[in-house]
Structures are given as structure tokens and as C-alpha cells.
Amino acid sequence: MLGTLLGIRWLIGALLLALTFKAAVAPSFSWIAKEGIGAVQMAGATVATVIAAVGVPFLLVALAGGLAEFAERIGSKAVEQRLIILLQRTYLDRRRGESQARDVTQILYGSELAKKGFEVIYKDAWRLTAEIGAIILWQLSIGPDWLPALLLSILPALLIVWLVGPAIQRLSRLVLTTHRVLAARTRRLHKERFERSQERLFRSVMHLEVLRWLADRGMGAVLWASFGLFVGVSLALDLGLIPSSGDVATASSFAVNLALLAKPLGDIGKVYTKWREAMPAVIPVYGRA
Questions:
Q1: Beta-carbon neighbour count of residue 34 at 10 Å?
Q2: Rounded CA gap, 127 and 18, in Å?
Q3: How far apart are CA 280 and CA 23, in angstroms?
Q4: Nearest-CA neighbor of 270 among 207, 222, 209, 201?
Q5: How many CB atoms lie within 10 A of CB 47?
Q6: Are 117 and 7 in contact (CB under 8 A)?
Q7: What is the dihedral of CA 225, 226, 229, 235, to 10 degrees?
Q8: How do the pLDDT tens digits run along the chain, 289 residues long?
């Protein structure tokens, strides 16, 4: 797998730069929110004074974010297409014997699926580390007293994905195998078996989509629920883990950071399920078919 990634290392390097820049820009909105609320709280504040205080920084951050998003999108597409080409060539070179149904399935469907596993290595792991790290650093600079609440709210959200990972990999293997069966049963005399395989594929894909949703969307809900529970328990038991006093601007900035954190945490669920889903398609490329 490393050799495949090294074959497109320059494209991956450019993509990582774009991802790092994007991750560095995103938390700036929490600083803008803090400055904006501070401007509103000043004596004699008007719409004009608030715009004067945060208007230009907001426009600059929004522009930088848009440019980073564009660079990431173009870079991602370039890496994806070159990676698929390399995976197809590697599979054909390393396969043990020839089977039309298996080979066609791996080239057309398996390579697209295997690509997801590589994305975890060259893009997702780096991006999520940069995004979460940037948010934590911003929280340290804005309101370090709220950092324990931020970190403790993450843990239950991370645990949820481990519950569905093995099932996702089993279903992905079944989907890939069913695609091979379909490719081998296109003759008229196999019509009944072909249709049965189609129905099995439909059920497997629907089941897989449900598990994906639980991992993708469930983490965000668990994050906010964990934070609410953490705050309630801390206040009820007087644990002192939540600042008892603090200005509205800092608390609002924390809320923005928590909302920003919900996205990369949800992406952790997506990345884990992506890795599990890709493994049945990666194995035929580098190991047993």
C-alpha cells in the first residue's frame, strides 16, 4: 500500500497542504464570534460599530476558507483518479489467475471501494488530526477553563463507532461477493439466480446504509448529549469542572468550537466505517483474492 501512495506522493503533498490550511482557518470563526459579542456588549454599540469591528476579518476568513475548500476539492479529485488507475494496474499485475467476473468486478467496483481505504491514510487521518488539534488550540487560547468539558464530551462519541465497525466490514464483503456473482450470471439461463442475487444485494446495501448512518450521524448527537450530561453532573455534584463564572463571549466562543468539533467527530465515524468497508476490496489487490 505504501508503494502505491508513493507513486502519487506529489499530488498527496499538495492535497495535505490544502487540508492543513483549511483546518487552520476554520476555528477563526470562534474568535470572530467572541469579538462580535464583545463589540455588541460595548456601551453605545450599533450595527455599524459591530460591522466595523468584525466585518473585514469575517470577509477575509470566509475568502480564505473558500479558497481552501476549492483547493481541497480539486486536489482530492486528482488524487482519487490517479489512485484508482494504480489500484487497477496493481490488481491485474498481482492477481492469481484470470476470472472475468472477478476481474471485472474488482476493476469497476472493487477499485472504487479500495480507494476509500487509502483515503483514510493519505487524507482523512491527517485532516481530522489537524482540524481537532486546531480547535483544541483555539479553545486553549480563548477559554482554557472549558477545555475539560470539551475533551470529556468527545470520549463517548468516539466509542460509538466501534460498535458497528465489524458488521460494516462483513456486509461490505458480502456486497463485493454479490457483485462478482452478478457479473458471472448475466446469461439468460441464469436469470432466476441473477434476480435472487440482486435482491440479496439490495438488502445488504440497505443494511449497510443504516449502519453507516449510525456511525456518521450518531457521533454528533452523542457529543451534544455527552456535553449536556457532563454539565448537569458537574453542576449537580459541584465538581468544579465547568467554570462557575465567565463572560458570555467566552461561553459563546466555546459553543462555536463545540459545533465545529461536531463535524470532525462525525467524520471520525465516517472514516472508521470507510476503512472497514474498504478492506474486503483492498485484500484482493495486495493479497489473496
A1: 22
A2: 10
A3: 31
A4: 209
A5: 8
A6: no
A7: -130
A8: 677 777 888 888 888 888 788 777 777 766 777 777 777 777 777 777 777 777 777 788 778 888 888 988 898 888 888 989 998 988 888 888 888 888 888 888 888 888 888 888 877 877 777 777 777 776 666 656 666 766 777 777 777 777 778 888 999 999 999 988 888 887 787 788 888 999 999 999 999 888 888 777 777 777 778 777 877 777 777 766 665 555 556 566 666 666 666 667 667 777 888 888 898 888 888 865 4
C-alpha cell at 178: 454479490
All domains in the chain, ordered by first residue? 2-286 (1.20.1560.10)
Name the grid cell of 235. Answer: 453542576
Cell of 275: 476503512
Do 174 and 204 meet the contact criterion of CB atoms below 8 Å apart? yes
pTM over cut 0.85 = no
* CA-to-CA separations, 163 to 41, 119, 138, 212, 275, in angstroms, rounded: 46, 22, 31, 11, 14
